[in-house]
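Subject: two folds for Thursday's group meeting

Dear M.,

Sorry for the delay on this. The cluster queue was jammed most of the week, so I only got both jobs back this morning. I'm pasting them in the order they finished. Each block is the input sequence followed by the predicted structure tokens. Could you check whether the formatting survives your parser before we put anything on slides? The first protein is the one we discussed after the seminar.
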Amino acid sequence: MAGDWNGDGLSDFANVLADGSLTVATQQQSGGFAKTFVHDAGTFSYSASSGDMVFALDADGDGDSDLLQLYADGSLAVARNDAGSIAAPVPVGELGFLHLPEAGAIAFAGNYDGDAAEELVAIEPDGAVRIVSIAENNTIAVAEQTPFGIFHEEPERGSACRGRQIVAGDFDGDGRGDLANVLPDNVLLVSTMTDAGFSEAALWTSPGFEFSPWKGDGWNVFALDVNDDGLDDLVQLNGIGEAWAARSSGGDFEAPYRCGLLGFQHSRVGPWKVFATGLR
């Protein structure tokens, strides 16, 4: 996971190990990363196949990332972070939702209401949405929204077919998270966050990107601000390691351009994993 674990404004990485312990690598002002063992009590659980997930999000808006544990039974626990000291997870409530992308269920952490704290957005297989915020007294508030045209669809494992990928980012620059849906046949739908919730999905100019995680070494799309204009753009990493970027204009995406050969791929079946995050 990528997050800011020590509140210095630089992105760091956290790794949940098989025994439930947590390792954090903090980015240094001088460059590079320093590894720090933060929590070895074995209290975290990650199992993508069963729905156990850990998310990095700033639950209290204090500037450093906390950890939100989603268990396979749909319950939630938050592990609060105080400038690099991460406490054990504390139960906060029931989400009733499992993170199972192959079944069409997926969740994203981000800022969806524009305040200092971050939330969890859970999208169910039928497109219904739950937005989860965590209070300081370790309770949760869940806002539900009916389907608005955004879905996740994982292609069959081992297939070269394309699926429907949801990419979360701030595409209109209002400080609130939006959702982009990369569909087959060069179709792109975007739902922006409004005061009334997510808008009905609308067609934006498609950069021609595709989501085909089992094709070659994996085709995936990421959201990040490539030109520092306050708008998240879309970046395609394809099966030969090329990166292509399509810049957001706040209401559409421009034609993609080749950024270069990255040299590795985001592979579902291999050890390579890629994160979109501002490292500086």
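Second protein, same layout:
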Amino acid sequence: MRLLIRHALLALFAGCFGFSAFASEYDIAGLKLGMSPAQAKAALVAAGFDPKSFSENMATYSYNDGVNGHETEAFLDNIAAEKRENRSGGRVVDNFKLAFAPPPKGGYLVMIRRNISNPIDPPTVAEYRAALTDKYGKPDIEQTGSLMWLAPRGAVNCMQVGNNVASGSAPEGGVMDGVGSMMARKKITNPSQCASMLEYRMSAVLNGPARTVRAILTDVPGWAKAYLASQEWVEAQRQAAVKARESKASKPKL
């Protein structure tokens, strides 16, 4: 079950739903933002993941008509997949979590999260970073143990909070807080001006092993747009529920 966004943010974003989000030029193991669930599962299979490892997790939004609680119809929230390989007495684990935009116009991939644990034969951090640069180009932002790319080039990093760059791993609430903050400070006028973010995290020791690697690709503008549209959708259902309850209410006996 999910909670509704604060009404102050809804007011801030009023009128912003008609703009298209930026499409990311990046992928993680063939998975790209904007994919449908079927396309995403096909990409996982192509990357060597067994469909038997897939789990589809549903979600609902809750609302209240003033007396009774209600929930929307269930929708696909995320797909998880895991691959395990035993090597030399140890185990290499690779897992994905794929988040999809909520209704009414959702159902497309807005966040790709990948975690790799390789304690057996990991490359060095320097080798891993070089491979990332070969694939994605020079990072837009480099921090200790973290590399970030923004797409399209020149778009606004809406996950910037003060002098700090927020992790791309924020759930939808964190994404909305970041985008809302940028609009409140008039850094942007519409979520479609935000960049999608790709982030890789690993050890900061260049000549050390990259035993654990975390990657996340987030469609910040697309997620913001879809989430805000979903709140209008839920609010319309709430208002309909209120009217239905009031139409059946008993009359006062004076």
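Two things I noticed about the second structure. The CA atoms of residues 65 and 240 lie 9 Å apart. The longest strand covers residues 75-87.

Cheers,
T.
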